[in-house]
Structures are given as structure tokens and as C-alpha cells.
Automatic annotation (TrEMBL):
It catalyses: RNA(n+1) + phosphate = RNA(n) + a ribonucleoside 5'-diphosphate. Its EC number is 2.7.7.8. Coiled coil: none annotated. Its cofactor is Mg(2+). Pfam families: KH_1, PNPase, RNase_PH, RNase_PH_C, S1. The keyword Magnesium applies. Its main location: cytoplasm. Residues 217-296 form the KIX domain. This is Polyribonucleotide nucleotidyltransferase. One of its GO terms (cellular component) is cytosol.
């Protein structure tokens, strides 16, 4: 089919024949091998669907050999992990809820055409491979990318278009409804965002029509599977022992720990009652979960009661403060109910920006890094730390996207910036709390951000029809677990900077999407006005005393070699003498970074001297580094020497240089130009009186 002016084609049955489903995808010259494979039997002892999505970036796809000692691809990059998550999130709800067979969706990127994004090809290929396979799946679904340049929306933008786009939006949908939204935006209005979402949805419907023709020709009959649904007799027995009113009372509290203790007591009572029924005991935990879920959903949808007693639009109690951690460059803490995030900001020279080695030719590094940590103590659990998982990486990337549009340019603020969000306590939407905390932390660090950014999450509970639903503002953990949607929106007063939408049902109507975006805007405005802007109304005028200071100067690019010197001798001498860090780019922009202002000024002066075209009459201060019979050599800048002839040392005649000068003397000299040998010539005796 033709997709956004480029040819999309799929080979079925040509390769990967032993997988349950395989689609060999081609979009322009971008090639991705997509497979779907399922185990024969369900995995024992689990109460979830074990879906694994992999997005493998091979450097041969862009004609490169991987770096490092082994010269082969290592663990998945953050970009690959984020792409895997974007494929996983819309597809997971379309598998049967009681399916426990392992399923792996593998996407191998084999060739990349800059005109055709491999991520969208992998998303479509995963859908096609699964839909034509014998794996139970209520598809197909499709995904489209939308960009925006000068206010014009673009379908599946090219690599170059994406680099200058004000919007990076991914929308996945089924035939009728949107099932996933992921966006980074440069303060795009709510109306424009909705327009872009439904432009993508229209394209998705065309793609699904194309997939339908493939399924009609190549689709396999879906296999039967062993259902893991909870027996209805068990539910009936549980309700006899724990009536609905008792379960409602157990979950109806704003204290997470109290609710968990109530459920522990109910569980103990039921375990005792069913002690002789091993079959029921094996699935009792899942049955209690389902009972809680039905109770909470009924309370919200029918009675308009939330577990913590809030109204449908009410935000939990908010609090914020800055400078809570001493000696760091910037810190802030944001609290929303039982969700609490502390973000610490660190500033460094641009040389410490992150380097990226991936398939995106336009993105070789990034100066702003946001990282998110979620320790087990934040939810009252204990487990060993194994480093950030996919969820943590995804939450960090979401907050990073939300804050990027308000950061100053490198020219305005020549620093690499790292923010780290530490989760102190979690009970719903820590990712958006990290946006709020990070916005304040950046301001506290003296980063001249353009505006404050806040984020909030809305939830959803649906009934039996499309019109039977309720959108909840600021969902807590229980409403997220038992609800149908987690719709996160971050932005400024002027517009949206990031969206991430996850659902557990088969899609959202346009009315739900519009209402969720509107409610998120209302809540975001409140958080910005009443909390963030009252805590720290503007960025600090300067970075704090513990942060490195940076001076930027510009030199003639042709003089870069003079500053660097042979094998780095000159620049290393400046660094050794002053203790600063120096970065020079190809345009001649020089950044001098340090904590001692006097030493930074000295480094600037040294570079100025080195890059000056020497003319007669210029005054310099030099150090005597060598004495000869005919004169003395002075170092007047690191790695730069000139000579004072014996006749130019003193007014009166002298017989020996040593009679006036000794090694290490600091003297003021005037430049006489260059001698016959091309050396810079100085005079001490001719320094004007006013300069002495």
C-alpha cells in the first residue's frame, strides 16, 4: 500500500516460517523482520499475561560497526527499550485476559531508510505477525507517527523533518478506537493535539483495511488455550464469607497501608475457610484481586465514590519545597497525597553530555538527561535493587520529553544538565510528580527555563456501553490498578509538552479522549498556579555556589589548533595551571568551566593571548623560562614563548643577562613584532611608563 507517499510492503511466508507468525516488513528501504511466537502451554504459577516485546537495533542497518571492545551489539539501548514499550502498550490489552502462554514479539531492524522510521514499521509488523498467527489476539491494530512543522501536521515524518518538528506523536488504534498515545510537544494546544490524534487514527484505519486483506489471504485459525479464569463457584463462596458491604468498607480509605492490612485480614479469613480446597487456594489471590476490582469499579461508576473519599475532579493534597538537599546544585520535592518525589539537578560542562550510538542519524548525543528511580521501599516492599527496569526508563523518558521544550539553548546556557527523580513514596502517577519536582529543581539550580511545567494523570472506569464511563482526575494506585486508563499529560499554561496514555480495554471513544485532555489541563493549571509558581516563581538568577561556572568565548576557528597545540600540549598546560575544564567545538566556541573565578579569568586571558595576531606595541606579562648569552626566553601564555634580546632588557648596557634576570622572574614586556627567524620579539626597556 501507499503510506504517506512511500511504499509499504509485507512478505508473508518468505522467511521465519517456524514462528507462529512472521511479517518481513519493507517501508521504502527500511526493513524490519517481525515475528510472533507463543509457548504451547501456559506458564505455571503466574497471575498475569507473560508478554515480551523486543526491538533489536543492529548497527549494520546504518552501515556501522558497533563500538566497544567486543564490536557487537550489547544490551538494548534506552531508545530500543522505549520503542518496545510503545509496541507493548497498545497490543497487550488485545490478548485474552485469561491467557497465560508466553508470547514474544521480536522486531529485528535490518535496514534503515532516513525517510522511513523503523519504529512505526516494527509496530505495524508486530500487529500483522500476531494477527495472521494462530495466537489468540483481538486485532489488528495499527500505529502512525505525526509531526508538525510551522503548524502543519505531517504523517510519518522523515528523520530530517522529525529533527525540526514541534510535535512527535505516536497513536495506535483499532478499527474504531484509539488505544495508545505517546507524545512530546513544543507547547502544542489541546485542540491541535486532538486534531493530530484523530488524523493519525484515520491513517490507522486505512492501514487496518490493508492488514485485513493480508489476514484474509494468509491468516491462520486461532488455537485453543487453557483458560485461567476464576471459577464462578469460588466467587460465590467468597461473597458468602465476605459480603460486598464488608469488601467496600475494607477498600474505602485514603490510607494505602490501612487498606492493605484490611485485605490481608480478609485473605487470612478466606484461606482458613478454604484450607481443604487446594484448587481454590491456588487462585485465591487472583480471586480477591478481582473482587476488589469489581467493588472499586462499582463504587466509582455507580455511586461516584472514590476509595479515598474524594470527588471525581478533586486532586489530593499538594505540597512543594525547594533546596531540601544541601550542597547539590538544585533540589526540590513535590508531594501529592501519598506520592512523593525528590528531584536533584546537576550541572556540568557540555563535554559531559550523554553520547548515543543508535540508528537515529540526527541524534548522536543529548545534553539534558532525566532519570527516574523507583525503590521498593516507596511502596512498603523489600527486594534487592537490580538497576532501572523498563518502567523506570519509560518514566524517566516521559519526564525528559515534558521538560525539554522549556530548557534554554546551549548558547544561552552552555551546560549539560542531569535531573534524577528519587521516589520517596508512591501511590499513583509518580512520573507526573517527577515532572513537577524536576521543573522546580531546575529553577532552584539557576537553569533559566522558559516556563514552569506540571503534569497530572486522569483515569477511567467504563461500564457496559460507550456512553457509560467516568473520567477521574488524579488517580491513585488503586484506581490505576482497577481502572481502565492511565492518561498522563504534562505541559505549561500555554500548551502540552508530553502525553502518555495506557489503557486496559479495547480503545477509547473521541469523547473520552477529549474529556481526559480537558480535565488534565484544568488540573495542570491549578498545580502550576497554586503550587509550583508559589513555591519558586522564577529561576534563580545564577547557579549556586557549588555548581561549576562557565564562561563562553568565541575564537577564530583557524586558531583552534593554536589553542590546542601539538598533541594537546598548549591546552593541557592551561588546564594544569588553572584547574579549569575547556571545551572547544568546530565553530570556535570555547567553554571554560571551573569553580575559581580568578583561575577561569586567567584561562580566558591565556586563550585570548594565544589567539591574538601579535602586533608591535602590545603589552604582555611573561615568565623567564630560559636564559641564553644573547637574551632570555619568556613564556607569556601556556605553550607560547617570545625572546627578549640582551640589548632590550635594560636602558643601560649590560654584559650578562643573569645580571638582571633570573629563571622564574615575572616581567612586563612590549611586543616588537617578529624577528628574522619568525620568533616573537619583546622588549623590557621600551615598556611605556604608564604600563610599568
Amino acid at each position: 500500500m501507499d503510506l504517506a507517499g512511500r511504499k509499504l510492503s509485507v512478505d508473508i511466508g518468505r522467511v521465519g516460517k517456524q514462528a507462529n507468525g512472521c511479517a518481513f516488513m519493507h517501508y521504502g528501504d527500511t526493513t524490519v523482520l517481525c515475528t510472533a511466537t507463543a509457548s504451547d502451554k501456559p506458564r505455571d504459577g503466574i497471575d498475569f499475561f507473560p508478554l515480551s516485546v523486543e526491538y533489536e537495533e543492529k548497527m549494520y542497518a546504518v552501515g556501522k560497526i558497533p563500538g566497544g571492545f567486543n564490536k557487537r551489539e550489547g544490551k538494548a539501548s534506552e531508545h530500543a527499550i522505549l520503542t518496545s514499550r510503545v509496541i507493548d502498550r497498545p497490543m497487550r490489552p488485545l490478548f485474552p485476559k485469561d491467557y497465560r502462554n508466553d508470547v514474544t514479539l521480536n522486531n529485528l531492524v535490518m535496514s534503515v531508510d532516513p525517510e522511513c522510521n523503523p519504529e512505526v514499521v516494527a509496530m505495524l509488523g508486530s500487529s500483522i505477525a500476531t494477527t495472521i498467527s494462530d495466537i489468540p489476539f483481538d486485532g489488528p491494530c495499527a500505529a502512525t507517527l505525526i509531526g508538525m512543522i510551522d503548524g502543519e501536521l505531517i504523517v510519518n515524518p522523515t528523520l530530517d523533518q522529525n529533527a525540526v518538528s514541534d510535535l512527535k506523536l505516536t497513536v495506535a488504534s483499532t478499527r474504531d478506537k484509539v488505544i495508545m498515545i505517546e507524545a512530546g510537544a513544543n507547547e502544542v494546544s489541546e485542540d491541535k493535539m486532538i486534531e493530530a490524534i484523530y488524523m493519525a487514527h484515520e491513517v490507522n484505519k486505512e492501514i487496518i483495511a490493508f492488514i485485513d486483506t493480508i489476514v484474509a489471504e494468509c491468516g491462520r485459525e486461532k488455537h485453543s488455550y487453557e483458560s485461567c479464569a476464576i471459577p464462578e463457584e469460588l466467587f460465590a463462596a467468597i461473597k458468602e464469607i465476605v459480603p460486598p458491604a464488608e469488601m467496600e468498607e475494607a477498600v474505602f480509605t485514603d490510607e494505602k497501608q490501612v487498606r492493605e492490612e484490611n485485605i490481608r485480614q480478609i485473605t487470612a479469613k478466606l484461606e482458613e475457610a478454604f484450607a481443604e480446597n487446594e484448587e481454590w487456594l491456588a487462585v485465591l489471590g487472583e480471586a480477591i484481586y478481582q473482587y476488589q476490582k469489581k467493588t472499586v469499579r462499582k463504587m466509582i461508576l455507580k455511586d461516584h465514590k472514590r476509595p479515598d473519599g474524594r470527588s471525581i475532579r478533586q486532586i489530593r493534597p499538594l505540597a512543594a519545597e525547594v533546596d531540601i538537599i544541601p550542597r547539590v546544585h538544585g533540589s526540590a520535592m513535590f508531594t501529592r497525597g501519598q506520592t512523593q518525589i525528590c528531584t536533584v539537578t546537576t550541572l556540568a560542562p557540555l563535554s559531559e553530555a550523554q553520547r548515543l550510538d543508535g540508528l537515529d542519524g540526527n541524534e548522536t548525543g543529548k545534553r539534558y538527561m532525566h532519570q527516574y528511580n523507583f525503590p521498593s521501599y516507596s511502596v512498603g516492599e523489600t527486594k534487592p535493587s537490580r538497576g532501572p527496569g523498563r518502567r523506570e526508563i519509560g518514566h524517566g523518558a516521559l519526564a525528559e520529553r515534558a521538560l525539554l521544550p522549556v530548557l534554554p539553548s546551549e548558547a544561552e546556557f552552555p551546560y549539560a544538565i542531569r535531573t534524577v527523580s528519587e521516589t520517596f513514596e508512591s501511590n499513583g502517577s509518580t512520573s507526573q510528580a517527577s515532572v513537577c519536582a524536576s521543573s522546580m529543581s531546575l529553577m532552584a539550580a539557576g537553569v533559566p527555563v522558559k516556563k514552569a511545567v506540571a503534569g497530572i494523570s486522569c483515569g477511567l472506569v467504563t461500564g457496559d456501553s460507550d456512553d457509560d464511563y467516568l473520567v477521574l482526575t488524579d488517580i491513585q494506585g488503586l484506581e490505576d490498578f482497577f481502572g481502565d486508563m492511565d492518561f498522563k499529560v504534562a505541559g505549561t499554561h500555554e500548551g502540552i509538552t508530553a502525553i502518555q496514555m495506557d489503557i486496559k480495554i479495547h480503545g477509547l471513544t473521541r469523547a473520552i479522549v477529549e474529556e481526559a485532555i480537558a480535565k488534565c489541563k484544568e488540573a495542570r493549571e491549578y498545580i502550576l498556579t497554586e503550587v509550583l509558581e508559589k513555591t519558586i516563581p522564577a529561576p534563580r538568577p545564577a547557579v549556586n555556589e557549588y555548581a561549576p561556572k562557565i564562561i563562553q568565548i568565541k575564537i577564530d576557528p583557524e586558531k583552534i589548533g593554536d589553542v590546542v597545540g601539538q598533541r594537546g600540549k598548549t591546552i593541557n598546560a592551561i588546564i594544569d595551571q588553572t584547574g579549569v575544564k575547556i571545551d572547544i567545538d568546530d565553530t570556535g566556541a570555547v567553554s571554560i568551566c571551573g569553580t575559581d573565578q580568578a583561575m577561569m579569568d586567567q584561562a580566558v586571558e591565556d586563550i585570548r593571548i594565544i589567539t591574538t595576531d601579535f602586533e608591535a606595541g602590545q603589552i604582555f606579562v611573561g615568565k623567564v623560562v630560559s636564559i641564553k648569552e644573547f637574551g632570555a626566553f619568556l613564556e607569556f601564555a601556556p605553550g607560547k614563548e617570545g625572546m627578549v634580546h640582551i640589548s632590550k632588557i635594560a636602558k643601560e648596557r649590560i654584559n650578562r643577562v643573569e645580571d638582571v634576570l633570573t629563571l622564574g622572574d615575572i616581567v612586563k614586556v612590549v611586543c616588537l613584532g617578529k624577528d628574522k627567524m619568525g620568533r616573537i620579539s619583546f622588549s623590557i626597556k621600551d615598556v611605556p611608563k604608564e604600563e610599568k
